[in-house]
Input
Amino acid sequence: PFDVPGAFTVDAVRPSIISRSPAADEMDVVAGSAAIIVIGFSEPLDEATVVDANFTLRQGSTLSEVRAAYDSTAQAVIVTPLAGLAPGFEYALEVSSAITDLAVNRADDADTWIFRTRVPQLVATSPADSSTLALVDDSRIEARFDTAILSAALQVSGAVEISREGQRVELRDAPIFDEATGTLRFEPAEG
Output
């Protein structure tokens, strides 16, 4: 019977963001191709509203393509920037108000926050800086960084240059960055 008190319950509570990683205004976010953004919600979401178009990532005025996936157990959305996050940039992520909970309640407003990725710092080189003990038969050069370098940035002409006695030296091959070790490897074309 519908005339019994409490026969109907109405969910009028709107979903809200309760956690975000990276946090708003975080200034030391690790960059790289494996970077993700995790957004925790106050209640379960309607998975049909967790679509890429409801999450907008900008680097300045440039849009970055993303993929959004919902983890119903954690009540969280994982946003993956398809090109990764470039080091040393400010990003803004906007979550659309089109996100709804299971009762089709929409968020109050779109929610936007900013964060900045870390600038990689050089921590070691091989051969060591100013070294006179470089092996004659090994012309490889390695530079180790404290955080990832976006591999796509290495494809830009002039991203990595060698100078010998003030003259630019051509590279043998494209530089290779190993994200697991933070090591950039390259060598001069002439050895």
Observations:
- The two ends are 87 Å apart (CA to CA).
- The CA atoms of residues 34 and 84 lie 6 Å apart.
- The chain has a mean pLDDT of 88.
- DSSP finds no helices and 14 strands in the chain.
